[in-house]
Structures are given as structure tokens and as C-alpha cells.
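hey can u check if this looks right to u? its 561 residues, i copy pasted from the old doc so theres a chance i mangled smth
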Amino acid sequence: MQRISISISGIRRFSVTSPSPSCASNHVTLAGKKAFSFLDSDQTFPRNYHHQSPLYKVSSFLGSCKSQSNSKSVLLQAHAHILKLGYGTHPTLVASIVAAYRRCNLPHIARRLLTRFLSLSPGVSNTNLVIESLMINGECGLAKKVLRKASDRNVITWNLMIGGYVRNVQYEEALKTLKDMISFSDIKPNKFSFASALAACARLGDLNRAKWVHSLMMTDGGVELNPILCTALVDVYAKCGHIKTSREVFYGVERDDVSVWNAMITGFATHGLAEEAIRVFSEMEGQHVSPDSITFLGMLTACSHCGLLEEGKGYFDLMSQRYSIQPKLEHYGAMVDLLGRGGKVKEAYELIESMPVEPDLVIWRSLLSSSRTYKNPKLAETAIQNLSKARSGDYVLLSNIYSSTKKWESAQKVRELMKREGIRKAKGKSWVEFGGVIHRFKAGDASHVETKGIYKLLEELIQRTKSQGFVPDTDLVLMDVSEEEKEENLNYHSEKLALAFGILKSSPGSEVRIQKNIRMCSDCHNWIKSVSRLLNRVIIIRDRIRFHRFEDGLCSCKDYW
């Protein structure tokens, strides 16, 4: 590895004298000395050092530095010690130090250190290591700065950026980086670039950009479709709501790898097409591709979304009896969900009690949700008691269960507890893409530039659907108020605003695609069915649970979700 000398005088200028260190400060300092004692020997370390190497331990120590004043002092001393020992330009340590300075609210030192490192022409391998480490630390902005100022880049450099953005849930930036790679460099994307880009499209549910990435893959002779890319293509079209294209891709690629089959089965499951998932599973067995634990999770999910209780139980038993796959926590969770959705709430609780593994929060929340649907306050209370880290939605569910059974006093007590503990209800959000821009809405939103037109159209649609027989489901507004007030609470849910905007901006007859961060309520579900019939439009909504395709007054979920 190239050794570059960096003076520690710059670090000394920022030194901080810690007045009368506390016990905690002494503890941190001792921990730091212990970590750096590994570097006092004459050992040399390869670039790809083992995770238990001294440099890894130093990186871990730097990662523990927080924003307390004593940590700033320790960090500055630690950095000076690293430079003194000659490890100041080790790429991973540079990234760790930069990230530590950022966490300790010393961004000016972080920027200066990074600029100094890049000015020394560290080479593409070292640059890539810095970018990788920064992305691991969540420092996407600094990684972008390294990319922009680096004198030498290769395809790995770009892939680290694209993949790093995806891992840090910055999907828009990942796709923008792919576009920059194509537009401003002579380096062509490879299969890893496209796999990360497709993952970003899938998370966004952005069909247009998924098609764009797919078309890039096919240009100039195309890239070789390995199992990873085949799986990514099947997955992205399913998650973007285009299950027909997902199916076409699936039957047009090699299907020797189980992951490709899993993507198709899971896609059908999220779209509520259990019969299709069952058919694909049978084809899989016929072609002698052995299912794995993910396959069975997809099958259980498909059965759960369509109310196929006995079929789901059959696949759960098949796992261990024919394929010797022992159910994991997520499989038990899927079974609890299947039983709960099917009205077997007591049986779901009995399964939880008999599980050989400890149930997690997801399982207890599933029981809580089904207890709400089937109005079982006793089991709902049991679920809440087992939620060691109950979220706002859990308390809201319990309050709603009490309200739905007219136990207003108990519901009020839960609301008062939430207020006392500072627990706020998570707000539903919906978004729709138009002209390459994502438009986001929340309930009662008035921040959009076209708010006036949106509300005008929404009011018109509400009146027209009512004239055709739609009746608002006011039972969902679980408050002791008048029917008129309940209707007003329902009228401006985020998905209704997003739909009004989508209809306002799109041409008649075209599909409207909406995404939502939480489960859609039954009032919105029934109203959107009415709108699809009224306007003769296909409306596709992806909520937290699954896809809903509304057409001619019907939904693909068959009112079971």
C-alpha cells in the first residue's frame, strides 16, 4: 500500500484540553489506549485485513465516538496517534476518522482531512476503499464528494456509489448516479450496476425508470442475464405493479436458480394471486428445482392474502415433512397472519404459545391487528402486554378496538396514555409519480401547489360516487362524534388526494398508480372501487401489505386484505 506522510500539526491546532475528565471520559480514553496498543508493534497489515485485525479494532473504536465533548478530545488524540504511527492514509481508517469527526460535530476537520487525502492522488483502489467505508458509515454526502473529486475511477467506483445509496435508502440518488455514470463517463455499467439500479426502482415502485434500466441492459448487445439479474427483473416489475410483465420476463429467462422462482412466487403473493403462485410452485417441483425457506414464505404469504387457510397449513407441513426445512420465525409469523386474517384469532394465539422460538414484535402486532378486525379486546390486550417496544400504531389499534366495541372510556384511557407518554400517531402518506416527479400527500394536505384543483375534483368525485350508491364507512372513524363529522374525517385521506391528483394530471383511460406507506382503510378501498367504475379507469395502489388493482368496480384482492 502506498504510504503518504501527513503532518500532525494540523490536528494539534484543533486539540482540545479536557478539563478534569470524568469517569466516563477516563473509560473512553483507556479504551482508546487499549485499541491503539495493537498498533505499537511492527506488524504490517494487508489491504483486505481480517475483521479481527488491530486496524479493524481501531475502526470500531472510532465508530464508538459520539458527540459528547470528551469524545471530541479523545478523537483528536486518537487521530494524532494514528498519524504518528504511520497509518494516517490507510483508506478505511481515513473513512472511519472522517465519519467520526462528522458524528462529533467537527465537519470542518472532516472536510479538510478528506480534501487533503484526495489531493495526494491515492489511486483508484484506495479511493474505492474510502467510498465503500464512507457508505458503510452512512456518509453518502462525503462519498459523493470523493467520487466528484477523484482523479481516477473505474466501474467499481460507480458501483460502490450506486449500491451504497441503495443500502442507505437513497434510491433516487442511486438512479441519478447511474444516469451520471452513463452521461459523464466513458465507463459502461455492468451487471452489478444494473442489479443495484433495479433494486432502487423496486423500492420506489417506479415502473418508468424500471423500464429505462431494463432498456439500458439490452443496448449494445446487452449484458448477460445471470440469476441475480433475472431475479431482479422479475422482482422489479412485480413490485412496480406490472405483474403481467413480471410473468413474461419469468418465462423468458433461464429458471435453473431457485431465486428466480422465489421472485415470481413472491410477486404473485403480493398481488393476491395465490392460484398463480400455487401453479408456479407445482411447475417448480415438476422441473426438479428444490424450494427453500424463502419459497415457502412466499407460498404462506400468498395463502394468507387470499384466505386459503387449509392450503397454507398444507404448505407449512410440507416444509418439514417433504423437504426437511424447519420453519423459522418468519414462517410462524406468516401462519399467525394466515390464521388471524381468516378469523381464527384464538388458534393464532395458541400457535404463538406453542412456537419453539420466541415470538417477535411482528408476530404480536399481527395478533393485535387481527384482534382489531374481529373485535377481540382480550387478545388485543395480551398482544400489547407482549410488545416490549410498542409503537404509536399499536396503541392506536388497541384504542380502535375499544372504540369499535363502544368502550369509549377504555379508548379514552389509551389516548390519554399516548398523550402523557408523548406517543404520536404515525401519519398515512401516499405518493404518485407524474412527469418524473414524485408528488406526496398526507391526510388533509393543503401544501401542494395544485391544492385548489385537487380538492375541487375530489369533492366532485365524492358526490358522483354517492349518487351511484357509495356509502361512506363511518364505523371506521372510531370517535364518539356525529355522522357528518365522521364523513369529513374520511373524505381527505392521503390516497384520495393522490388519486384526485393522478386523475387531474393524466389522460382519460390511462392507469393511475399510487403508493401508500400504511394499510389502506376499507372506506378508501370501497370508494376507489366506485371511482374505477365511474371513470372506467384502472387504478393500482401499492400499500404496506400488497397491491390492489381496481377495475370496473372490483379489486384484485377480492375484498380480502
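The CA atoms of residues 316 and 416 lie 42 Å apart.
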